[in-house]
Design brief:
Layout: H1 12-40, H2 43-69, H3 83-112, H4 119-141, H5 148-177, H6 182-209, H7 219-228, E1 232-242, E2 248-256, H8 262-280, E3 282-291
Length: about 325
């Protein structure tokens, strides 16, 4: 059976360079910000430094995942290493959630007994951190729309941007009012933002690992599209899932007319492959053609029931025929 192999290979080398540069810049600033946070006794700065340190780890993991994904498929990994980026996104989102919990705990402790904070240092370092984080986030932002690994790293950096804004605002508030409790409050708000971003990425990574149908695909509409192809009489054992955020895979049993020549079957497959690629962004389709009267199965088959003795359901578009 012919397959479509138009897998989207977005310039991994450039992404690796951007990630490496972002990690290096962030690591240098972590050292500076930690020293400033200790000197100013600012939880907001120390919180941002801790988050930046996890960014260095996240960027390094993302860099490695992209490098690994460029390795070719082989007998042991027939789909290659594209899922490496999904695993890294899972790790990144989990660490974001853990960081948020730690921030909430420390903010609560400091809110109970707010220590004095040097507002001028808080604002100065927070402003410098904002510039650094905007630069690194811009470097990583390229290609994030179609790569969950890059997006998880970008969200780490985006969280830092809002963290530094919070640190500057807290410093300004303390400088104007003398209320040191504004520092842990700003940290808690930053923690909420980090937790929300972590949850959204975690949801997507779990869906991909569970091989769920991509959110933007309407399976009922897809079945109707199948049946619009000339020569198709039904479809069953239909599966759509993602290898990564940008690589989607489809397999299906397609029922066609009796006694069609092989060339006609190939033409039907090409039409379906083209339709799935254009309308649903599916890069790899595996289609099994069957004639009318073949034993039907469920539209979404139960893989725990191999070779059932009797049909367990009708596929879409199929009809019963008298013996």
């Amino acid at each position: 059976m012919p397959h479509t192999h138009a897998h989207d290979r977005a310039r991994p080398h450039k992404s690796q360079i951007r990630l490496a540069l972002s990690a290096l810049v962030t690591l240098v600033f972590v050292i500076v910000e930690t020293a400033a946070g200790l000197f100013a006794n600012s939880l907001a700065l120390l919180t941002d430094a801790a988050h930046n340190l996890t960014d260095v780890i996240a960027l390094a993991l993302s860099w490695y995942a992209i490098r690994l994904a460029t390795q070719p498929a082989h007998a042991g990994k027939t789909y290659g290493y594209h899922r490496a980026g999904i695993l890294v996104a899972l790790v990144n989102s989990t660490t974001l959630a853990l960081i948020a919990v730690g921030i909430f705990y420390e903010a609560y402790q400091r809110f109970q007994a707010p220590p004095p904070v040097m507002a001028d240092v808080l604002m100065a370092v927070g402003g410098a951190a904002f510039v650094v984080n905007v630069l690194t986030a811009w470097l990583v932002s390229h290609g994030r729309e179609h790569d969950l690994n890059l997006r998880s790293a970008f969200v780490h950096l985006l969280g830092d941007i809002f963290s530094t804004i919070g640190a500057v605002v807290a410093g300004l508030g303390i400088w104007l009012t003398g209320q040191d409790w504004l520092d842990p409050v700003a940290s808690a708000l930053i923690g909420l933002l980090i937790l929300w971003n972590a949850w959204t990425i975690l949801q997507e990574t779990v869906e991909i690992l569970l091989e769920s149908t991509p959110r933007d695909i309407d399976m009922s509409l897809m079945v109707r599209d199948f049946l619009q192809v000339e020569g198709v009489r039904g479809v069953h054992d239909l599966h759509v899932w993602s290898i990564s955020q940008s690589i989607r895979v489809l397999s299906a049993h397609v029922v066609i007319d009796h006694d069609l020549p092989i060339t006609a079957g190939i033409a039907i497959q090409r039409q379906i492959n083209d339709l799935m690629g254009r309308r649903y962004g599916i890069a790899h389709s595996t289609l099994q053609l069957e004639c009318e009267g073949c034993e039907p199965d469920l539209l979404y088959c139960d893989i725990t029931r191999p070779n059932p003795e009797r049909p367990c359901g009708k596929g879409a578009g199929e009809h019963s025929h008298p013996a």
